[in-house]
Amino acid sequence: MAHAATLSLRALHKQYEVKGQALPVLQDINLTIAPGEFVSIVGSSGCGKSTLLRLLIGLEGDYQGEILLDGQRIAGTSLQRGIVFQEHRLFPWLTVEKNVALGLLNAQQSEADKRRAVQEHIELVGLKGFESAYPHQLSGGMSQRVAIARALVNRPEILLLDEPFGALDAMTRAHLQQELQRIWQQEGITMILVTHDVEEAVYLGDRVVVMEPRPGRIRRIVPVELAHPRDRSSPGFGQIKDQVLGEFAEHGAELAAPAWRPDAAPRPLSSWQFAI
């Protein structure tokens, strides 16, 4: 089981400079995530969710406030933090086994230990028997399983998930939500999910963080005090889901407001490219 980390965000502020003017993106974010906790973050497009993940993964260091992992300030990318995107980003010329092994490219392990870890994580995501398959031979859901295995294979302290099931059909999405919940419980690491799907957020999260834009800030944190596995049709589940949706209904115009002015420069897509 991986070591779970405590993540603390204290008075976090982030802004970009656009045409010589400061554009606030995140404002006064204060949040502590306990070891092994699963936190879901929801909010409309432009509320700074993706920027927050960029800061947590270590792609950006230009911010005010503190981002601490077990009391140490995050500085740059690290094997301590893994990430899964909406697109699986597998290399098409590599097999499942070799795609997962990329997650250990910089790990200080023997080759035997690496092979063992790769096999364990392929089995963890339910893909035993597909080690030699190529991405084009896999379904979308299976490809995301490979991406999750690759992110977990080096046993990070935190796994960040950026809309990991957003491109999948409803049935596959529901099934992988169940699988992710199983993996989270089995691995015991801290997970942070960014999603637009309120039901997904409630189904998976111990807490749901509702964000609002211009600039991005926390409006409310809704605890989800329901045992796993969760029944989506239960009254308790519906009540919590309605609480979260109520934040959007009550403040719909503000939550839906764009965080970027029409004349603002787009964020460079190249900044989201990863080697693995």
TrEMBL record:
<dbReference type="InterPro" id="IPR003593">
    <property type="entry name" value="AAA+_ATPase"/>
</dbReference>
<keyword id="KW-1003">Cell membrane</keyword>
<dbReference type="InterPro" id="IPR017871">
    <property type="entry name" value="ABC_transporter-like_CS"/>
</dbReference>
<keyword id="KW-0813">Transport</keyword>
<dbReference type="Pfam" id="PF00005">
    <property type="entry name" value="ABC_tran"/>
</dbReference>
<dbReference type="GO" id="GO:0005524">
    <property type="term" value="F:ATP binding"/>
</dbReference>
<dbReference type="GO" id="GO:0016887">
    <property type="term" value="F:ATP hydrolysis activity"/>
</dbReference>
<keyword id="KW-0547">Nucleotide-binding</keyword>
<keyword id="KW-0067">ATP-binding</keyword>
<protein>
    <submittedName>
        <fullName>Sulfonate ABC transporter ATP-binding protein</fullName>
    </submittedName>
</protein>
<keyword id="KW-0472">Membrane</keyword>
<dbReference type="InterPro" id="IPR003439">
    <property type="entry name" value="ABC_transporter-like_ATP-bd"/>
</dbReference>
<dbReference type="InterPro" id="IPR027417">
    <property type="entry name" value="P-loop_NTPase"/>
</dbReference>
<comment type="similarity">
    <text>Belongs to the ABC transporter superfamily.</text>
</comment>
<feature type="domain" description="ABC transporter">
    <location>
        <begin position="7"/>
        <end position="240"/>
    </location>
</feature>
<dbReference type="InterPro" id="IPR050166">
    <property type="entry name" value="ABC_transporter_ATP-bind"/>
</dbReference>
